[in-house]
Each structure stands twice: as C-alpha cells, then as structure tokens.
Amino acid sequence: MSDQLFSLFPKGVNKVLELIGTITVKHSLKLLSVHGILCMTGILGGKWVLDKFEPMMDIPSGAYFTQFDSGVNFKEQILVELFNHIEKHQINVPIAKVFLLTEIDKAHLLMESNKANGKIVVVNSYECSNY
After folding, report:
1. Are 2 and 30 in contact (CB under 8 A)?
2. Can you tell me the distance from the alpha carbon of 26 to that of 32, in angstroms, rounded to the nearest whole number?
3. Which of 17 and 63 is assigned the larger pLDDT?
4. What is the pLDDT of residues 93-130, one digit of tens each?
C-alpha cells in the first residue's frame, strides 16, 4: 500500500490521521512529507503502549507528531474549531449508519468489520438526532 501512496505522492503526504494507533503509527510516520503532520486520535488496534519507539529515529526530521484525545486532555475549543472548519469548507463527513444506544453491540460489530465506509453514530433516541 505504501508503494501506491508514494506513486501518487512521491514526497509523502502532508497529513495523516492515525486511527488505528500504536500498531501502525511507525508506518504512518514514514508516509509523511517534510513538514507533514501525523495526528494520532485512535487506538482501534487495541494496544495503548508504543513498544521500542525512538522519537529521534521514528519521527522523520521536519515532521510533526501530535494527538487528539477526547478524554482527560480534551480541549473543547479545538473541537469547536474543527466543526467550524468542516462547516466553512462544506466538507462532507459520510455517515455509514446510525444506531440506537440499545444497538451498541451492532455498532461495535460494524466497526470491527472495517466495512462501515463512514462514521458510525450512536444516539440515545432517533428524536435527538437529525439522521
């Protein structure tokens, strides 16, 4: 897959959104161009600790490695800016399927299948959503 990417972007890509996490982050870092940014925002790979990570070796010179955390370190203003950017530039964020909270098991199965092709949304009730 890297060969396909580099055939389209010989100098690497400007941005990578890392959703899998620690098991793929080193590979994703290698895809960056000079001044490229990798933002790690997911741990779908299930592993929280990055083994044998050497920042001086694994982060390409001139590239940036950051993260987004919706937990303890969550900064509301960053999320507001993200939604404003999406709205301003009319970015289409595809929604694969909307589930009720009582269907969380089905939502999780769809996520694990890697066949959603869009965001998986879970709501308390259909009345509280626009979907």
Report:
1. yes
2. 11
3. 63
4. 888 999 898 898 898 899 888 888 888 888 887 655 45
Same-domain pairing of 42 and 102: no
- 20 and 69 together in one domain: yes
Residue ranges making up the domain that contains 36: 2-91
Q: How many domains does the chain contain in total?
A: 2
**Which distant-in-sequence residues (6+ apart) come within 8 Å of 63 by Cβ?**
29, 32, 33, 34, 35, 36, 37, 38
pTM, to two decimals: 0.58
Q: 18: domain CATH number? A: 3.40.50.720
